[in-house]
């Protein structure tokens, strides 16, 4: 009996793994649909709207890739993945790419056999508490009960932070952001910790947002990146350059609105190459030369996507900060299209 | 082997493998075996090739690396500097704790409900029917979530227990208060009860593997066992005296003395007192805290499984012929004693085999623990460790092996018990 269970598992893993062997680009084209792993519910980054359509900053990256590869930003099937299931889903071929607030770390890049192709949001881990607690710094959280999403880097950073500050805490391991918010609001934990952007997004949806403070300490570096499976380098290139097309577009002032106009009039060789008017960039990665143009048309350039989903004018109200263009003192820096 | 004495006249032909009944069953078995082995080789090869393609190997060394995460409920000492293996053991112990307690409570509750369901009191019997039908027809996960939500949402947050100077001055009462002379506090996070403390503690010894054993607890257990043994000896002697002289010596005060004086003396010597939970900055500290994640899971598992056990108990009782209880009544036994002396011992034979599978179910169902953030084996090994190390195949296989071992152990223990209560056939 032991044996049959063992081999049953091997069989299952073998079958699942078998599905992932062909080239991802061919799979996506044959399917006519991109399968994108996203957050099950983090307002602003990836969450279904009132009509059940996924919207958000991460979701826009999926749309750009779908537009670049398939010519239609709507040809995406979204798979909601928890922190615990996301990497297994990607590794087993259940999704083609991951745009789900996933931190790029050494271990994940190597041991988990993933490739993080481009950072789409530079973040750091923070803490959120209720004002009535009278806490103004994370250093005052000694003895607190802290809600943390299981299977995340935040879980490890939390352990490290409390250890290095000689403090103790009681972890409450929760499966996803929605559960974390609910536990935090019910007072089952004193503090909720996740990426600062996630905290801002969560707070925006809370009924008593004004009573909640995000503590000033940022305890980690969290470069949230788009991830693909290790080994399919061409697919990695497609996702990487589809995303960088958005970043470059912002740098050169190309927006969704003026795209056609710029394409018709520009003499700048870099922009001409980016938009496929010169050279054959697209062909080199197995697409056509208009791929970047279509990616930008999907939801606009990087700045437009940021402002529309999580920027200052939205309820989440995040400042560009580290995510501004390098020309504006930020870290967003697209390598040259050459 | 009588057939062997009658050899066929012709030599062996290949078709005999199919048409000759002497060989056919062997032929079929060999073919099935070959197909099975071929399938196996294909699966193993496939797994190997795919692991190779992903650049992943198959080894368990990750178990000895630093875990780096913290757990809320730990039965043996644990810190994030310990290994993944230690975290696995913590998870396993949490699984065993909730399963063992769940099995005991579910059996007690299930037996009571099963018996009451056969009650002649119409109302009681109907209420039990409603209980059974409600609990066993709604998925367990929903019950676990419901219990977790009830405990988290209906109980006050810890700060509601706080009495500030301003409130004292204004004569205000806090929003929530503790129970039983300010000793028990049930917040929305856990149940805080007083914990025993020894001022003249004997200390702890480490028995290796960072497993501390409290000498106080050992001393208390030893003294209590000795008292009990002494009391048994005393009662046996009293009985002997009664049988020889016909006069029973006074036993009540020596019994009390033997049973309680040594333990009270020991506790006094050790400086025993209770450490009451007190509200501090964030939560209650001091005393002992039982987290609601554990309570909710235990309650849900117990209530759910008890519904099934109740039906098994009812079936067992109804399997006993009515003549048995009529005979017992004819002998003058009251209904309660009839049940405990005549019916239940016989019913156990029918009850125990299906009870085993309920125990197995409860143990396996405890893996739904993550729904209320209880860190069991699936939460540590199959959750955080799997996710942080990326060793899906290894973790899954190990977890399956552990659950299998637990199940087979429960099953064999219960089978031994079943043998002991089985009808003795002579």
TrEMBL record, chain A:
Protein's recorded name: L-glutamine-binding protein /L-glutamate-binding protein /L-aspartate-binding protein /L-asparagine-binding protein
GO biological process, alphabetically ordered: amino acid transport
GO cellular component, one term: outer membrane-bounded periplasmic space
Pfam families, per database record: SBP_bac_3
Annotated source species: Rhodobacter viridis
Keywords, alphabetical: Periplasm, Signal, Transport
Every Solute-binding protein family 3/N-terminal domain range: 33-262
Signal peptide stretch: 1-22
NCBIfam families cross-referenced by the UniProt entry: 3A0103s03R
Domain of life of the source: Bacteria
Family: Belongs to the bacterial solute-binding protein 3 family.
Subcellular location: Periplasm
Cited SMART domains: PBPb (SM00062)
From TrEMBL, chain B:
InterPro entries for this protein: AA_ABC_transptr_permease_3TM, ArtM/GltK/GlnP/TcyL/YhdX-like, MetI-like, MetI-like_sf
Claim: Flavoprotein is one of the keywords in the record: no
The name this protein goes by in its record: L-glutamine ABC transporter membrane protein /L-glutamate ABC transporter membrane protein /L-aspartate ABC transporter membrane protein /L-asparagine ABC transporter membrane protein
Taxonomic lineage of the native organism: Bacteria, Pseudomonadati, Pseudomonadota, Alphaproteobacteria, Rhodobacterales
Keywords assigned by UniProt, alphabetized: Amino-acid transport, Cell membrane, Membrane, Transmembrane, Transmembrane helix, Transport
GO CC terms of this entry: ATP-binding cassette (ABC) transporter complex
Main location: membrane
Similarity field: Belongs to the binding-protein-dependent transport system permease family. HisMQ subfamily.
Domain of life: Bacteria
GO terms for MF: transmembrane transporter activity
Species the sequence originates in: Rhodobacter viridis
Residues passing through the membrane, by range: 23-44, 96-118, 130-152, 209-231, 252-274, 294-317, 396-417
């Amino acid at each position: 009996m032991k044996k049959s269970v063992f081999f049953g598992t091997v069989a299952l893993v073998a079958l699942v793994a078998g599905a992932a062997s062909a080239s991802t680009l061919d799979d996506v084209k044959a399917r006519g649909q991109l399968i994108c792993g996203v957050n099950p519910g983090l307002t602003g980054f990836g969450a279904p709207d009132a009509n059940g359509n996924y919207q958000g900053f991460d979701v826009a990256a999926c749309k750009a890739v779908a537009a670049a590869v398939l010519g239609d930003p709507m040809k995406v099937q979204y798979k909601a993945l928890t922190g615990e299931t996301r990497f297994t889903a990607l590794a087993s071929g259940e999704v083609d790419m991951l745009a789900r607030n996933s931190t790029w770390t050494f271990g994940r890049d190597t041991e988990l056999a993933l490739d993080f192709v481009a950072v789409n949001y530079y973040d750091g881990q923070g803490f959120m508490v209720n004002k009535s607690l009278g806490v103004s710094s994370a250093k005052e959280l000694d003895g607190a009960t802290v809600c943390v999403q299981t299977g995340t880097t935040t879980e490890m950073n939390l352990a490290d932070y409390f250890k290095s500050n000689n403090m103790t805490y009681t972890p409450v391991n929760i499966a996803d952001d929605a559960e974390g918010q609910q536990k935090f609001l019910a007072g089952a934990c004193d503090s909720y910790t996740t990426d600062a952007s996630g905290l801002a997004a969560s707070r925006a949806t809370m009924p008593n947002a004004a009573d909640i403070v995000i503590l000033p300490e940022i305890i980690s570096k969290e470069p949230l990146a788009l991830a693909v499976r290790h080994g399919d380098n061409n697919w990695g290139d497609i996702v990487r350059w589809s995303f960088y097309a958005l970043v470059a577009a912002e740098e050169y002032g190309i927006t969704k609105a003026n795209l056609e106009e710029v394409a018709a009039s520009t003499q700048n060789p870099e922009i001409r190459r980016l938009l496929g008017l010169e050279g054959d960039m697209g062909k080199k990665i197995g697409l056509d030369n208009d791929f970047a143009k279509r990616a930008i048309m999907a939801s606009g350039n990087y700045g437009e996507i940021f402002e529309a989903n999580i920027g200052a004018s939205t309820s989440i109200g995040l400042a560009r900060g580290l995510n501004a263009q390098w020309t504006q003192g930020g870290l967003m820096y697209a390598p040259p299209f050459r | 082997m009588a057939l062997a004495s009658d050899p066929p006249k012709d030599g062996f032909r290949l078709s005999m493998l199919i048409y000759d009944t002497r060989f056919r069953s062997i032929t079929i078995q060999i073919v099935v075996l070959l197909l099975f082995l071929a399938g196996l080789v294909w699966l193993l090869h496939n797994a190997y090739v795919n692991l190779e393609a992903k650049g992943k190997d198959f080894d368990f060394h990750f178990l000895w690396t630093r875990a780096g995460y913290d757990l809320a409920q730990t039965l043996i000492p644990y810190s994030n500097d310990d290994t993944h293996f230690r975290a696995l053991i913590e998870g396993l112990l949490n699984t065993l704790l909730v399963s063992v307690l769940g099995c005991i409570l579910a059996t007690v509750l299930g037996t009571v409900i099963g018996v009451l369901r056969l009650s002649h009191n119409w109302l009681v019997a109907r209420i039990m029917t409603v209980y059974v039908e409600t609990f066993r027809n709604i998925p367990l996960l929903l019950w676990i979530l419901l219990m977790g939500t009830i405990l988290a949402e209906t109980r006050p947050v810890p700060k509601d227990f706080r009495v500030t100077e301003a409130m004292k001055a204004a004569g205000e009462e806090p929003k929530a208060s503790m129970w039983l002379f300010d000793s028990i506090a049930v917040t929305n996070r856990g149940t805080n009860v007083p914990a025993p403390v020894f001022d003249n503690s004997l200390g702890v010894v480490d028995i290796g593997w960072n497993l501390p054993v409290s000498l106080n607890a050992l001393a208390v257990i030893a003294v209590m066992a000795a008292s009990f043994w002494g009391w048994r000896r005393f009662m046996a002697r009293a009985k002997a005296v009664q049988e020889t002289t016909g006069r029973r010596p006074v036993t009540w005060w020596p019994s009390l003395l033997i049973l309680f004086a040594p333990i009270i003396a020991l506790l006094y010597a050790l400086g025993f007192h209770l450490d009451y939970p007190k509200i501090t900055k964030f939560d209650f500290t001091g005393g002992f805290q039982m987290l609601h994640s554990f309570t909710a899971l235990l309650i849900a598992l117990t209530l759910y499984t008890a519904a099934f056990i109740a039906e098994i108990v009812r079936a067992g009782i109804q399997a006993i012929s009515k003549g048995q209880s009529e005979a017992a009544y004819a002998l003058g036994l009251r209904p309660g004693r009839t049940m405990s002396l005549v019916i239940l011992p016989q019913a156990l034979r029918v009850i125990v085999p299906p009870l085993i599978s309920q125990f197995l179910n409860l143990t396996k169902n405890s893996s739904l623990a993550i729904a209320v953030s209880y860190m069991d084996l699936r939460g540590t090994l199959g959750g955080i460790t799997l996710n942080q190390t990326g060793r899906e195949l290894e973790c899954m296989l190990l977890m399956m092996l552990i659950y299998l071992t637990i199940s087979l152990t429960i099953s064999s223990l219960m089978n031994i018990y079943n043998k002991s209560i089985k009808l003795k056939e002579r």
